[in-house]
Description:
Number of domains: 1
Strand content: 35-45%
Number of helices: 4
CATH architecture: Roll
Shape: globular
Mean pLDDT: 90
Order of helices and strands: HEEEEEEHHHE
Structural class: alpha+beta
Strand order of the largest sheet: 2-1-5-6-7-4-3
Radius of gyration: 15 Å
CATH class: Mainly Beta
Amino acid sequence: MKSILRSPLHGMISKNTMLITVTGRKSGKMHTTPVNYIRDGDNITVFSLRNRVWWRNLRAGAPVTVRIKGQDLKAIGESIEDKKAVAAGVLSYLQMSPKYAKYFQVTLDSSGQPNPEEVDRAAQNRVMIRVKLARA
């Protein structure tokens, strides 16, 4: 996935998948992870499973680089762990992009709205990452 997103073939998947590069707080090593995202102007929302470790480097907010549609962009990333805030973020995310509901194991009702109980359950084992792109 990383290789494709870094190649000229990125167009196949870069509409909704990006690379996020974070620097380890203790190790100082750079870690690059492919993630699904939704972008709203300079704001990007990403979710990760809580048992992954890369997002922990963003607990107090930290500089990141995101590779979106073949471009490396500087940004600030911050992880959100509060389960109510994560649930609200998941709900908003799925309302904007219902195609991701299956990845969260959330069903949609006949009008396309996510099931609230399933959204709450999905938020229990996830964190939300807010990324704010830097102005050029």
